[in-house]
Amino acid sequence: MTHWATPFPLFMERANGARLWDVDGNEYIDFCLGDTGAMAGHSPPATAEAISRRAAMGVTAILPTEDAVFVGDELTSRFGLPKWQIVMTATDANRYALRLARHLTGRPKVLVFNWCYHGTVDETLAVLDSDGRVVRRPGVVGPTQPAGDTTRVVEFNDVDALERELAHGDVACVIAEPALTNIGIILPDPGFHDALRDLTRAAGTLLLIDETHTICAGPGGMTAELGLEPDLLVVGKSIGGGMPVAAFGMTEAVARVVGEAVEEPDLNISGIGGTLSGNALAVAAVWATLSTTLRAEDYERMIPLAQRWEAGVRDVIAECGLQWSVTRLGCRAEYWPATGDRTAAEAAAMSDDDATSYLHLHALNRNVLLTPFHNMALMCPETSADDVDRHTSVFREGLRHLASIV
């Protein structure tokens, strides 16, 4: 909330669909959508009704409800993995999945991709410095131990580096976004995911795919789109229509070993799960959201709008003669002050906080809301072509002014 271009955050009064109103009565076209949390649109009617109904019937009891049956089946149909656990956030899901991976393999380390994003999981808050050493990501508060003790880091799409680091034999799990989404959007090279899966299997390393942001690619994320075969999969934020909830899935082989672990008497202090994980209110929200939104027919509408947004931004960049790029993934798109052919390290080096703040504030003053800490726009089922064209017009005015002074 502190990362808006304003000296203080806007205070929201209400939000609905692709619109948000602040306490001063200003209406905004919302392309931020809670940084993916509201990708189904603000307050989807079915989700709001289900939350209200469930709240009147009991919020949490450390017992399952019938909604859990549908949710498990729906997640399996979308992502392919047969067994699921519901938790509060994708950070929780990633943390628990990595614990399971260490339990299953007996290995201590995790491998991540440079400038990845997996929430606030300690092991994933690591990057490569200019000398190729593993260090804590800038801004990390209170790191528990040196990053290299827990984590190996390679550049996304660098198959040779991946093979080299896995050869040490100490990596329990590779955790990967199917495409990087928090350092601009960096898409996988052709064949990269095949190599990733082959190399992890050969090394006896589990593969965890984090679809929390990349569910923008379709109902089953990039896992369904590309036919990925992870051992573990995490999805969060959007599946509950904004309700705090996430899920991690696993293969039958992983689930068998997990099943043995849950028989142990000290499970409640195992470091996996929490009192409110899988609570009735959150599961009801997932049931309502996935049964009525973020379906194939929704993406058939949302993705062309993102293509329209991408095309408009690209035309403006060309008009202004800047060496900027715009990349799209499903119904999500983002511009970046660098050419599109880049590594995450190069993207981080080219980041321009002043330009970003200016463009965000320019848009905000013209009633267009973008994600504050990067240049991302997301489409929801209620986003319209007029909304997209309004952004293009606002972006053109702002970038022309920026280009004239740099």
What does this structure look like?
The chain is α/β, with parallel strands linked by helices and 406 residues long. The chain has 2 domains: 12-30 and 295-405, Aspartate Aminotransferase, domain 1 (Alpha-Beta Complex); 45-292, 3-Layer(aba) Sandwich (Aspartate Aminotransferase, domain 2), CATH 3.40.640. 39% of the residues lie in helices and 17% in strands. The protein contains 13 helices and 16 strands. It has helices spanning 45-55, 67-79, 90-105, 147-150, 159-166, 192-203, 221-226, 252-261, 280-292, 296-320, 344-350, 353-364, 385-405, and strands at residues 12-16, 19-22, 27-30, 83-87, 109-113, 126-128, 134-136, 151-154, 171-176, 206-210, 232-236, 246-250, 325-329, 332-336, 368-369, 376-378. The strands form 4 sheets. A 7-stranded mixed beta sheet has the order 4-12-11-10-9-5-8, sandwiched between helices. Strands 1-2-3-15 form a 4-stranded mixed beta sheet. A hairpin with a 4-residue loop joins strand 2 and strand 3 (27-30). Helix 1 (45-55) runs antiparallel to helix 9 (280-292) and helix 10 (296-320) packs parallel to helix 13. The longest helix has 25 residues, at 296-320. It is globular and about 65 Å long. The model has no long low-confidence stretch (mean pLDDT 94).
Largest sheet report: 7 strands, mixed
What is the mean predicted local confidence, pLDDT? 94
- Based on CA atoms alone, the radius of gyration comes out at 21 Å
| Record field, number of beta strands | 16
Write down the overall geometry: globular
Give the count of structural domains: 2
Strand order of the largest sheet: 4-12-11-10-9-5-8
What is the number of helices?
13
Q: Uncertain spans, ≥5 residues at pLDDT below 50?
A: none
- Beta-strand content estimate: 15-25%
Work out the helicity level: 25-40%
Q: Assign the CATH superfamily of the largest domain.
A: Type I PLP-dependent aspartate aminotransferase-like (Major domain)
How far apart the termini lie comes to 29 Å
CATH class of the largest domain: Alpha Beta
The secondary-structure class comes to alpha/beta
In CATH, the architecture of the largest domain is 3-Layer(aba) Sandwich
The helix-strand sequence is EEEHHEHEEEHEHEHEHEEHHHEEHHEEH
The fold-level CATH name of the largest domain is Aspartate Aminotransferase, domain 2
